[in-house]
Write a structure and sequence with these properties.
The chain is an alpha/beta fold. It has a domain of 155 residues: TIM Barrel (Alpha-Beta Barrel). 39% of the residues lie in helices and 15% in strands. Strands 2, 5, 6, 7, 8, 9, 10 and 12 form an eight-stranded parallel beta sheet that branches. It has a two-stranded antiparallel ribbon with strand order 1-11. Strands 3-4 form a two-stranded parallel ribbon. Helix 10 links the parallel strand 9 and strand 10. The longest helix has 19 residues. The N terminus is likely disordered. The structure holds zinc ion. The site of zinc ion has 5 residues, from strand 6.
Length: 307
Amino acid sequence: MKMLGLPLLLLLALLLAGCSGVASVSAALFGDPGTVSSQEGALTAEATEEPPSSAAPANVVPPSPTPVQAPATPVPTPKPGTVTAAPILMYHYIRELPPNTTDHLGYGLSIAPKLFEDELAYLAGAGYTSVSMEDLVSHITRGTPLPPKPIVLTFDDGYSDFYMAAWPLLKKYGFGATAYLVVDFLGKPGYLSWQQTQELRDSGIEIGAHTLDHVDLAIQGLPQARRQIFDSRQILQQRLNAPVNTFAYPSGRYTTSTVKLVGEAGFSSAVTTAFGERHTTANLLTLARIRVSGGISMLNFIKNLAG
Ligand SMILES: [Zn+2]
């Protein structure tokens, strides 16, 4: 009688409190092994489908709500072969050419400032956010998050109109850019000066190397190609006191030996002139781009963005 005193008091208290699980509670308190074990079996089997609060033993001790914590979201490391879709646009000149120009090559490489502004306005309105090549590489290799609709804006050759015409518009629309520079052309008429280059770099424009003097790397001897690739990186880094980790093959020309040299020189990315916008760890040194050709219509510009 004395031993049953405490359980009976508990049962009474629960009854008074309007507890509905009387049968289960009595089974738990007074030892009905069959009932308890069958409930435990049910609990185990249904643990993923029903909340455990419906199980009888929980009514004996007032349930203390345990907050369900969502597991922390780790930064995913992409598996090799994971494809990142991000357009890398390729520009050259941002300048006006007379409509009757006979410079067909120059025309194909030139976008008028007004059209360039229309393109930037479209990109901004469509929700694109510019990222650097460094950001893109970091995402592809380490899973570092990118903003929605990432895009890289690249400008080849280091023409002075990048500073005069393109940069003010990029700033107006809140875009960054990557400029691939030909080291020995810097300071020559029509090209950026070192001072302008330093100012661009200090303002957040990413600087990439585009060889010493724009040679065709596919037909260079190995020592010459090595000099063009290694020295262009080293000179830019020394003069600008900043890392230079991305490279562009002049005219998109390269061989497997060239790609190997680019990797040995320490570049983490290199861009070609092949068309595309899908990138993987396997092609970080031969990344495809989307050329923005002179005279392109807005309709085709928009179509090309999809790769
Ligand atoms: Zn070039």
